[in-house]
Amino acid sequence: MATSQLNSLIEALRRLPGVGVKSAQRMAFHLLQHDRTGGVALADALAAAMENVRHCERCNTFSDTPLCDVCSDGSRDARQLCVVESPADQAALERSGGYRGYYFVLMGRLSPLDGVSTRELGVQALMARARDGRVQEVILALSFTAEGEVTAHVLQQALGAIRGPDEQPLQVTRLARGVPAGSELEYVDLSTIAHALVDRR
Amino acid sequence: MATSQLNSLIEALRRLPGVGVKSAQRMAFHLLQHDRTGGVALADALAAAMENVRHCERCNTFSDTPLCDVCSDGSRDARQLCVVESPADQAALERSGGYRGYYFVLMGRLSPLDGVSTRELGVQALMARARDGRVQEVILALSFTAEGEVTAHVLQQALGAIRGPDEQPLQVTRLARGVPAGSELEYVDLSTIAHALVDRR
Ligand SMILES: [Zn+2]
Ligand SMILES: [Zn+2]
Q: What ipTM score was computed for the predicted complex, to two decimals?
């Protein structure tokens, strides 16, 4: 079956997370046999995204403009800043409909064993963001896993030392424990997330 | 989280078989965060393959040259032609080490309900291939599923009417029933495939 361009495609598909050699073969054969238009569209979308998608200057999420759509939306509540681990977690919060403030996306969580330190997470950028003079409350919407807990603890310490408007200390809260322990936020059902937002502590 | 290029990428990834919205998000985030080089390589490999990979003129498998590597190999036994459903099945036979003839790749199997007829499978091209005056035996290495059985039956009828060298009728054989019934050929272990080749009937 081996031709060089087909093999290159199969090898390249294996760089996607969760894709082994069998899956990569199936994907390549499917596109070649049934959906070349889709294959070309995927090539174009990949090239454009790898070239142009960077991080939002304010919230650190992925964006192909300097400010993302959420940060560009002036109608949100500037007194609240919600810290999440990933764009997927942010999307889950948005879908819950329970939050109208702004976000900061860590793009990970502290994991000393994997070499993810406060520096990799851009905690300095979060500190600067929380010091904009309008933020009064920072909501830590982190996963209730061991690494999420460590991250929350470290951020709570750092953020608690910041003064907000009128020299009041920032209020630092966490999602209520309505979220099942040990779970990844993006897989939690929406009403649970909505309740956890109301009961944040 | 929404930016247009990121969303386009997630949508495009969902066209891959077996990839839902969660997997597509994970793939996009992984490439953007950890492997932009891999993302660019995948874009290039996709574009090249969609543009250049066609079907081998002799055996119908995917190839970016008019003749594939196997058909270009003059050292194989031209008296044997093995009919398989897919390039993955062909690869499994090659790995078994039990076969040194040529192949014809159907790129599917007869499935009247899904609109896959003898025409879509290119059975005419197989007939022409089997009439090259050198082929003496056609081995039907098809899956032992209902659709594979129907395909084998139809091909057996058609190929049995062809005369080979010296006006002898073509011998049409099938893999021995060493292959577990109901299974997909590409997932069968190699020694079973090798035995089934020896015991073909
Ligand atoms: Zn932003
Ligand atoms: Zn060929």
A: 0.80
